[in-house]
């Protein structure tokens, strides 16, 4: 499937509609050739393909490159994977190891590797981020949340407040990932959530939302357009503001199209308030969900951290 490319996403590159169509078709071909039709005998795997700005551009015509995310750039990978597309756009091959959703440990008994990640998730919060694991009323975005069930004690991040309206009544919801609010399709509608999570000290008295609607993740090996879910707010004690280190901040007005080099920020349960910028667009990327499997997400984008905190997000920040 072709990625969704628009003029607004690439406005600084002054591309024609015909060139965008050409890039989309080339992207689709690369995904089909190197991701959909992979061979088990290879000692490497292509985990993602996207578009980025070329840091070594010498002119107007080579300012964009395709990025090929590879788990291991072995000698065989360097020989097999191309560095130039048929339309003359360069390919940057980037070694990434694995790509893992930074969310909840699985409901089943964890493997040693998963147990290690779960242990990391319960470590003392980094200096200056304890407020994001604390109780907040009214409840803002960017703070700790988790299922109220003791057997599903994990933590994620409440992204923000959203709402629906039929002209008479407004229903408020919290927005986060499927793997935070539905644990990869495994929690049923009606499941309750506390703020903070029980892992961070929450109790049944801290229930703030009930799972309502889930965009189902594809079965392992499949493809999904998004990883998202919403939960209906249980009380009026919610705010559309986002938690920052010392206060809350209102969301900006309107919607800004995602574009390369766009400055971004987030607040998350583990790393708090961090800054970054969009590095890659139109990503078709394979994400491993621990205890569930690998799912390909389409039209994603990659962010690189900036500022005082080099890491933009970590385990427990999913949903931010």
| Broad structural category | mainly beta
How much of the sequence lies in strands comes to 25-35%
Number of strands: 17
**Overall mean pLDDT:** 89
Oligomer: single chain
Indicate the percent of residues in helices: 10-25%
Overall radius of gyration: 20 Å
Specify the number of helices.
4
Along the chain, the helix and strand elements come as HEEHEHEEEEEHEEEEEEEEE
Gap from first CA to last CA: 27 Å
Unreliable spans are: 104-123
Q: How many distinct domains? A: 2
Dominant shape: globular
Main sheet: strands, sense, barrel: 7 strands, mixed
How would you describe what is shown here?
The chain is mainly beta. The chain folds into 2 domains: 1-97 and 274-311, no CATH class; 132-243. It is 12% helix and 33% strand. The strands form 3 sheets. Strands 1, 2, 3, 11, 15, 16 and 17 form a 7-stranded mixed β-sheet that branches. It has a 7-stranded antiparallel β-sheet with strand order 6-5-9-10-12-8-7. Strands 4-13-14 form a 3-stranded mixed β-sheet, with no helix packed on it. The model is unreliable at 104-123 (pLDDT under 50).
């Amino acid at each position: 499937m072709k990625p969704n490319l628009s003029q607004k996403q690439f406005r600084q590159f002054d591309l024609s509609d015909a060139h965008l169509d050409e890039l989309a078709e080339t992207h689709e071909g690369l995904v089909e050739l190197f991701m959909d039709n992979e061979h088990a005998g290879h000692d490497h795997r292509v985990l993602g393909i996207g578009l980025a700005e070329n840091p070594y551009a010498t002119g107007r015509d080579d300012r964009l490159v395709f990025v090929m995310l590879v788990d291991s750039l072995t000698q065989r990978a360097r020989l097999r994977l191309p560095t130039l597309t048929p339309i003359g756009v360069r390919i940057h091959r980037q070694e990434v190891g694995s790509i893992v959703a930074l969310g909840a440990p699985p409901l089943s008994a964890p493997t040693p590797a998963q147990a290690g990640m779960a242990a990391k998730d319960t470590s003392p919060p980094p200096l200056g981020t304890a407020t994001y694991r604390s109780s907040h009323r009214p409840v803002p975005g960017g703070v700790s949340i988790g299922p109220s069930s003791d057997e599903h004690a994990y933590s994620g991040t409440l992204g923000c407040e959203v709402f629906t309206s039929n002209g008479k009544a407004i229903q408020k919801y919290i927005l986060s990932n499927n793997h935070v609010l539905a644990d990869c399709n495994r929690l049923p509608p009606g499941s309750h959530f506390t703020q903070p999570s029980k892992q961070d000290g929450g109790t049944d008295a801290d229930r703030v939302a009930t799972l309502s609607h889930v965009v189902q993740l594809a079965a392992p090996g499949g493809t999904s357009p998004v990883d998202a879910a919403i939960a209906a707010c249980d009380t009026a004690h919610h705010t559309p503001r986002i938690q920052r280190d010392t206060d809350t901040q209102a969301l900006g007005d309107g919607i800004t199209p995602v574009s390369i080099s766009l400055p971004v920020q987030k607040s998350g349960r583990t790393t708090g308030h961090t800054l970054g910028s969009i590095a890659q667009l139109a990503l078709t990327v394979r994400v491993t969900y621990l205890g569930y499997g690998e799912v390909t997400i389409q039209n994603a984008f990659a962010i690189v951290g900036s500022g005082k905190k080099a890491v933009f997000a970590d385990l427990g920040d999913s949903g931010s």
